[in-house]
From TrEMBL:
Signal peptide per UniProt: 1-20
Name the UniProt record assigns to this protein: Pancreatic triacylglycerol lipase
Keyword entries, A-Z: Secreted, Signal
Alphabetical list of SUPFAM superfamilies matching this protein: alpha/beta-Hydrolases (SSF53474)
Lipase domain sequence ranges: 45-334
Keyword Secreted: yes
Any one GO CC term of the record: extracellular space
Native source species: Orchesella cincta
Localisation: Secreted
Length: 352
């Protein structure tokens, strides 16, 4: 039996070696562990970070919402139309997304619609949609599934956040931004964690705090046990509000903001999604994205409507059993920044 086991080991190693998966040094005759050989950067496994890995698209005109200007650090000419008297809203997409995807664009367009409706006229705005597409896409690797891909993307959070902090500092230096308190960052998934690190870094370097950070289902798998300086929490801004829709295996579990919303209990499954992993509505290769992505839809609805309410409760069950909501607040975008606590509500996507 021992002879057969040894023979089987040698055969397996030989097959792996011939396929190029195991390096020549990895044989049963040395004391080293098997060394997995990954393709080099040029083969598409890992994307390097450069100054062009993060881009900033400024949208200003509500009557022409698709028109954008690319803002570049060091390019003063790109700031010509930027209005320093208007607060800055920054939108950061998530893993496997791009700034042109429907959710970041729908959020931006919704804000423009509300501007026109409230003011009864067009008005310039400073909405910057940030793209980190080059390092947010999934990587080709020898392991299937989401964990390795998100882990690789997570490694760049510090670099991405550093770049965004440099961008904010550039606006300050060019007198285009009066104070960090004039900034509202809205981030989804990994973008929410990036927003938190930006807030931490801004406070660390300037002593100022970002005015508001909104986390849309902050990613959980790689951030549950990381340091607070590496993820979103309520110390990262003057006001931090968080919407949880895929709590547990996909989104970050537990309350982390001044206000934490748990629509329909916070997940892991939302009413529009069949199961925690929905093969029809999930993004390809991204299990759990159906429930997670609904955080976008719920927040966009809160931009467009001012009558969506949430109730403070200890759990979704106690919220459902409660006859009276003693502490009710406006859900999402229009919430009072003096609010504190955990809030629950029943809500469905308008696309259902």
């Amino acid at each position: 039996m021992e002879t057969f086991g040894y023979f089987l080991t040698v055969v397996c190693i030989s097959i792996l070696h011939s396929s190029g998966i195991v390096t020549p040094a990895a044989t049963p005759f040395n004391k080293h562990k098997l060394a997995i050989k990954y393709p080099k950067r040029g083969n598409g496994l890992r994307r390097s970070f450069s100054k062009d890995s993060v881009k900033y698209f400024l949208y200003q005109n509500a009557s022409n919402p698709e028109n954008s200007t690319v803002l570049r650090i060091g390019d003063v000419g790109s700031l010509t139309s930027y209005n320093p008297s208007i607060p800055l809203t920054m939108i950061i997409h998530g893993f496997k997304q791009n700034y042109t995807d429907k959710h970041p664009q729908a959020l931006k367009n919704g804000m423009f619609v509300v501007l026109i409706a409230l003011l009864k006229k067009d008005k310039l705005s400073n909405i910057v949609v940030i793209s980190w597409l080059g390092i947010s896409l999934p990587f080709k690797n020898l392991h299937s599934g989401i964990p390795l891909s998100t882990r690789e993307a997570s490694k760049n959070i510090q670099r991405i956040s550093k770049h965004i902090v440099e961008f904010i500092s550039y606006l300050r230096n060019e007198t285009k931004l009066n104070n960090a308190a004039d900034v509202h960052i809205i981030g989804y998934g990994l973008g929410a964690q990036i927003a938190g690190v930006v807030g931490f870094r801004v406070k660390q370097s300037t002593g100022e705090s970002i005015g508001r950070i909104t986390g849309l289902d902050p990613s959980g798998p790689q951030h549950t046990y990381t340091a607070l300086s590496e993820k979103l929490d309520k110390t990262d801004g003057n006001f931090v509000d968080v919407i949880h829709t895929a709590n547990g295996p996909f989104g970050l579990a537990g309350s982390i903001g001044h206000v934490d919303y748990y629509p329909n209990g916070g997940g892991p499954t939302q009413p529009n999604c069949i199961l925690p992993t929905d093969p029809i509505r999930d993004l390809p290769g991204f299990p759990g994205s159906c429930s997670s992505a609904l955080s976008w839809d719920y927040y966009i609805r809160s931009v467009m409507e001012d009558n969506v309410k949430a109730c403070e409760a200890k759990s979704f069950l106690s919220f459902k059993l409660g006859n009276i909501c003693q502490n009710q607040i406006t859900f999402g975008h229009r919430v009072s920044q003096s609010a504190r606590g955990d809030y629950f509500l029943s809500i469905r996507s308008q696309e259902s």
